[in-house]
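Re: that chain you flagged

S.,

Sorry for the slow reply, it's been a week of failed gels. I finally had a moment to sit down with the sequence you sent. For the record, here it is as I used it:
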Amino acid sequence: MVNAAVSTENLLNSSISVPDQHQGTSGETYKLDVEALKAAHQHLQSIGKSPPKQKRDAHDLLTLFHAMPAAIRQTLALDSQEGSFERYRDVLTNSRYQYESSSWKFSDPVLMRLWRWTLANVVGYYRERGSQDPYVLRYIAEVQARAAAQ
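Prediction finished late last night. Pasting the structure tokens below so you have them in one place:
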């Protein structure tokens, strides 16, 4: 479950990161948009989905979900999955180590399905925008090969 949570976090982070060094080169690096995270956290507090005194958590899947620009969330059809992001919001911070009392004590295939579904939508999003990223192209080729084999 932790691997699926990390992977999902990375996908969400990709849409709320801003370039910080070497823009326009193959060595371009990014950082999280802290203002978007703050705004999302405050929004969740204002609607009662995060306690008023709770600190912002950059690993909280629901906070990351709400930090994404609404237009991207809608294009990726992620709004329909908000409940799942809420259900699994703390897997990464509370389940890294099985010996911790707060860790999830079972595996849940729903989180893995959420990650696969989100990944497919993110890849499709980049493909529609003409991405030539090798990962995007390879992913699409593999999916098409599997579909042809069925």
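What I noticed first: The helical segments are 2-14, 34-46, 61-67, 70-75, 82-87, 91-94, 109-128, 134-149.

Talk soon,
D.
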